[in-house]
Write a structure and sequence with these properties.
The chain has 250 residues and is an alpha+beta fold. Strands 1, 2, 3, 4, 5, 6, 7, 8, 9, 10 and 11 form an 11-stranded mixed beta sheet that branches. The chain has 2 helices and 11 strands. The chain has 2 domains: 61 residues; 135 residues, no CATH class.
Length: 250
């Protein structure tokens, strides 16, 4: 700052000297007008130059840039900000390719099966259900069995006959057999007279001639006429008649 003031004073002195010289010009003005005018113009240029230098010195004296200071100490870490809002769900990805088919698993342990046997140790089939029915107030054990060779079910009990009415094309309950609507489904075997077994053959009724029938599994009776009936098919079961009571389950 002191150096700047010194430069400023020197500039003031120089300007004063110039003014003094101008005042002395009048003494020799008459002697040489042309030389004096030339001198005046040169002095004006110098004064203008000094004025610019003085202005620069004044501006510099107001703001002097000092050297860069050392780096400050690193500040403490600020507190953790609040948790932001949950973003929107992304777009569903493309389904991956289907994997290869796995190897076949090991065969499971065979399940437990109960079979129904008659007194002669004949295997009648796999036990599905057992119940107690009453005929004339007498309880009769009834078994529902599955016959694997026929892939059908059979009701069998101590009465050994079906309670369904079966019709026949010939006398004495012989010839083709028929049944009325609905009592026999496609997976059921019908037992008649204790030694004949029938299954339903088709789901279309036929107009047939009837010569005899067994009312509710009873004795054969004559009945001549024509009626709409379902055809039955006689099948062979994997055991022999006659069956012997009592039955056993094991």
């Amino acid at each position: 700052m002191q150096e700047s003031n010194k430069k400023f004073l020197v500039a003031i002195v120089a300007v004063s000297l110039v003014l003094f010289l101008l005042s002395g010009v009048t003494i020799v003005q008459a002697a040489n007008k042309v030389s004096i005018w030339t001198l005046v113009k040169n002095l004006k240029k110098k004064v203008n130059t000094l004025s610019v230098d003085v202005a620069k010195l004044k501006a510099g004296s107001k703001s002097v840039v000092g050297p860069t200071g050392p780096q400050g100490v690193k500040g403490d870490q600020g507190p953790q900000g609040e948790k932001g809002d949950k973003g929107e769900q992304g777009i569903k990805g493309i389904q991956g390719e289907r994997g290869e088919k796995g190897d076949r698993g090991e065969q499971g342990v065979p399940g437990m099966q109960l079979h129904v046997y008659d007194a002669n140790n004949q295997d009648l089939g796999i036990l599905v259900d057992a119940s107690l029915r009453f005929y004339n107030n007498v309880g009769v054990r009834t078994f529902d069995i599955y016959i694997p060779s026929l892939k059908k079910f059979l009701y069998i009990d101590a009465d050994l006959n079906s309670s369904l009415t079966v019709y026949f094309s010939d006398a004495n309950c012989t010839g083709s057999a028929f049944i009325t609507d609905g009592p026999l489904d496609d997976f059921r075997v019908l037992r008649v007279f204790g030694d004949r077994y029938f299954v339903k053959n088709g789901n279309q009724k036929q107009s047939v001639s009837i010569a005899s029938f067994t009312p509710n599994g009873g004795a054969c009776e004559s009945n001549v006429g024509i009626a709409e009936r379902y055809l039955l098919e006689e099948v062979t079961v994997p055991f022999s008649e006659p069956l012997t009571l009592p039955f056993d389950v094991r």
